[in-house]
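Re: weekly structure request thread

Next one in the queue (180 aa):
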Amino acid sequence: MADPYPDCYLNGSYLPLAEARISPLDRGFLFADGVYEVVPVHRGRPFRLREHLRRLDDSLNAIRLEPPMDQAAWLAVIETLVRRGRGLEQLVYMQVTRGAERTRNHLFPAKVAPTVFAYSSPFPEPSRETLERGLEGSVLEDTRWARCDIKSIALLANVLLRQQGPTRAPARHCSCGTAC
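Done, posted below.
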Protein backbone atom coordinates (compact mmCIF):
# COMPACT_ATOMS: atom_id res chain seq x y z
CA MET A 1 0.00 0.00 0.00
CA ALA A 2 1.36 3.45 -0.92
CA ASP A 3 2.00 6.04 1.73
CA PRO A 4 -0.96 8.43 1.84
CA TYR A 5 1.35 11.42 2.36
CA PRO A 6 4.65 10.41 0.80
CA ASP A 7 6.55 13.73 0.86
CA CYS A 8 8.73 15.19 3.58
CA TYR A 9 10.93 18.21 4.22
CA LEU A 10 14.56 17.50 5.06
CA ASN A 11 17.23 20.18 5.47
CA GLY A 12 15.76 22.62 2.98
CA SER A 13 14.39 20.19 0.39
CA TYR A 14 11.09 18.47 -0.26
CA LEU A 15 11.50 14.85 -1.30
CA PRO A 16 9.71 11.51 -1.15
CA LEU A 17 9.72 10.25 2.43
CA ALA A 18 11.05 6.88 1.23
CA GLU A 19 14.16 8.64 -0.13
CA ALA A 20 14.94 10.72 2.99
CA ARG A 21 18.32 9.86 4.52
CA ILE A 22 19.89 11.06 7.75
CA SER A 23 23.48 10.40 8.78
CA PRO A 24 23.99 7.59 11.30
CA LEU A 25 26.21 10.11 13.12
CA ASP A 26 23.28 12.50 13.58
CA ARG A 27 23.09 13.43 17.24
CA GLY A 28 19.36 12.75 17.24
CA PHE A 29 20.13 9.14 16.34
CA LEU A 30 23.11 8.78 18.71
CA PHE A 31 21.96 10.78 21.72
CA ALA A 32 18.31 11.77 21.14
CA ASP A 33 19.82 15.27 21.03
CA GLY A 34 16.89 17.07 19.50
CA VAL A 35 13.29 18.08 19.95
CA TYR A 36 10.01 17.64 18.12
CA GLU A 37 6.59 19.19 17.80
CA VAL A 38 3.34 17.95 16.26
CA VAL A 39 0.80 20.35 14.75
CA PRO A 40 -2.72 19.05 14.16
CA VAL A 41 -4.37 20.27 10.97
CA HIS A 42 -8.18 20.53 11.02
CA ARG A 43 -10.19 21.42 7.94
CA GLY A 44 -6.94 22.14 6.12
CA ARG A 45 -5.72 24.70 8.68
CA PRO A 46 -2.99 24.25 11.30
CA PHE A 47 -4.53 24.28 14.78
CA ARG A 48 -3.00 26.75 17.26
CA LEU A 49 0.08 27.05 15.08
CA ARG A 50 1.54 30.03 16.96
CA GLU A 51 1.41 28.09 20.25
CA HIS A 52 2.97 24.97 18.72
CA LEU A 53 5.80 26.98 17.15
CA ARG A 54 6.39 28.81 20.42
CA ARG A 55 6.64 25.47 22.21
CA LEU A 56 9.10 24.23 19.55
CA ASP A 57 11.23 27.35 20.07
CA ASP A 58 10.99 26.91 23.86
CA SER A 59 12.17 23.30 23.55
CA LEU A 60 15.05 24.32 21.27
CA ASN A 61 16.07 27.06 23.70
CA ALA A 62 15.86 24.62 26.62
CA ILE A 63 18.45 22.35 25.00
CA ARG A 64 20.49 25.35 23.85
CA LEU A 65 19.95 24.82 20.13
CA GLU A 66 19.45 27.91 17.99
CA PRO A 67 16.09 27.70 16.16
CA PRO A 68 16.95 26.89 12.53
CA MET A 69 13.93 28.77 11.15
CA ASP A 70 11.68 31.62 12.13
CA GLN A 71 7.92 31.20 12.36
CA ALA A 72 7.35 32.41 8.78
CA ALA A 73 9.71 29.73 7.42
CA TRP A 74 8.04 27.01 9.50
CA LEU A 75 4.65 28.21 8.27
CA ALA A 76 5.82 27.87 4.66
CA VAL A 77 7.04 24.30 5.31
CA ILE A 78 3.82 23.34 7.08
CA GLU A 79 1.60 24.87 4.38
CA THR A 80 3.54 23.04 1.65
CA LEU A 81 3.31 19.69 3.44
CA VAL A 82 -0.41 20.18 4.13
CA ARG A 83 -1.06 21.09 0.50
CA ARG A 84 0.90 18.06 -0.72
CA GLY A 85 -0.93 15.90 1.82
CA ARG A 86 -4.25 16.81 0.22
CA GLY A 87 -6.28 15.83 3.28
CA LEU A 88 -8.27 18.19 5.46
CA GLU A 89 -7.34 16.34 8.68
CA GLN A 90 -3.59 15.85 9.14
CA LEU A 91 -0.76 15.80 11.67
CA VAL A 92 2.48 17.63 10.83
CA TYR A 93 5.50 16.25 12.70
CA MET A 94 8.60 18.46 12.96
CA GLN A 95 11.96 17.42 14.43
CA VAL A 96 15.18 19.36 14.88
CA THR A 97 18.41 17.71 16.01
CA ARG A 98 21.81 19.21 16.71
CA GLY A 99 23.01 17.64 13.44
CA ALA A 100 25.82 15.26 12.54
CA GLU A 101 29.51 15.57 13.26
CA ARG A 102 32.40 13.25 12.49
CA THR A 103 32.78 11.89 16.04
CA ARG A 104 30.56 10.67 18.83
CA ASN A 105 31.06 13.22 21.60
CA HIS A 106 28.79 14.37 24.41
CA LEU A 107 30.07 17.95 23.98
CA PHE A 108 28.03 20.17 21.69
CA PRO A 109 29.73 20.34 18.31
CA ALA A 110 30.85 23.71 16.96
CA LYS A 111 29.56 24.92 13.60
CA VAL A 112 27.42 21.89 12.77
CA ALA A 113 24.18 22.49 10.87
CA PRO A 114 21.10 21.11 12.62
CA THR A 115 19.03 18.41 10.96
CA VAL A 116 15.54 19.73 10.22
CA PHE A 117 12.87 17.20 9.30
CA ALA A 118 9.09 17.44 8.87
CA TYR A 119 6.33 15.40 7.33
CA SER A 120 2.57 15.19 7.31
CA SER A 121 0.38 12.16 7.92
CA PRO A 122 -3.36 11.61 8.07
CA PHE A 123 -5.00 12.54 11.36
CA PRO A 124 -6.27 9.24 12.76
CA GLU A 125 -10.05 9.18 12.94
CA PRO A 126 -11.44 7.83 16.20
CA SER A 127 -13.57 4.73 15.85
CA ARG A 128 -17.33 4.87 16.35
CA GLU A 129 -16.85 2.89 19.58
CA THR A 130 -14.31 5.41 20.90
CA LEU A 131 -16.66 8.27 20.10
CA GLU A 132 -19.55 6.53 21.85
CA ARG A 133 -17.74 5.06 24.88
CA GLY A 134 -14.59 7.17 25.25
CA LEU A 135 -11.18 5.86 26.30
CA GLU A 136 -9.67 4.67 29.56
CA GLY A 137 -6.66 6.50 30.90
CA SER A 138 -4.03 6.20 33.62
CA VAL A 139 -1.79 8.65 35.42
CA LEU A 140 1.70 7.24 35.90
CA GLU A 141 5.02 8.56 37.16
CA ASP A 142 7.30 9.75 34.35
CA THR A 143 10.46 7.64 34.67
CA ARG A 144 12.06 8.36 31.29
CA TRP A 145 15.33 9.69 32.73
CA ALA A 146 15.24 7.82 36.05
CA ARG A 147 16.27 4.41 34.65
CA CYS A 148 20.06 4.63 34.41
CA ASP A 149 20.23 0.82 34.32
CA ILE A 150 18.79 0.87 30.79
CA LYS A 151 21.32 1.87 28.14
CA SER A 152 18.79 3.89 26.17
CA ILE A 153 19.91 5.94 23.17
CA ALA A 154 18.03 8.87 24.75
CA LEU A 155 21.15 10.52 26.19
CA LEU A 156 19.92 14.09 26.01
CA ALA A 157 20.11 14.52 29.79
CA ASN A 158 23.75 13.39 29.68
CA VAL A 159 24.51 15.74 26.80
CA LEU A 160 22.97 18.71 28.59
CA LEU A 161 24.77 17.93 31.87
CA ARG A 162 28.10 17.50 30.03
CA GLN A 163 27.93 21.19 29.05
CA GLN A 164 28.05 22.33 32.69
CA GLY A 165 31.11 23.26 34.66
CA PRO A 166 34.34 24.95 33.59
CA THR A 167 36.29 21.69 33.30
CA ARG A 168 33.52 19.72 31.67
CA ALA A 169 34.35 16.78 33.89
CA PRO A 170 33.58 13.24 32.75
CA ALA A 171 30.21 11.75 33.61
CA ARG A 172 29.78 10.65 37.21
CA HIS A 173 28.65 7.16 38.05
CA CYS A 174 25.11 6.90 39.33
CA SER A 175 23.74 4.57 41.95
CA CYS A 176 23.53 1.70 39.47
CA GLY A 177 27.30 1.82 38.97
CA THR A 178 27.38 2.97 35.38
CA ALA A 179 28.32 6.27 33.80
CA CYS A 180 24.85 7.38 32.77
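Residues 7-127 form a domain with the D-amino Acid Aminotransferase; Chain A, domain 1 fold (CATH 3.30.470.10). The beta strands are 7-10, 13-16, 34-42, 45-46, 90-97, 115-122.
Next request, please.
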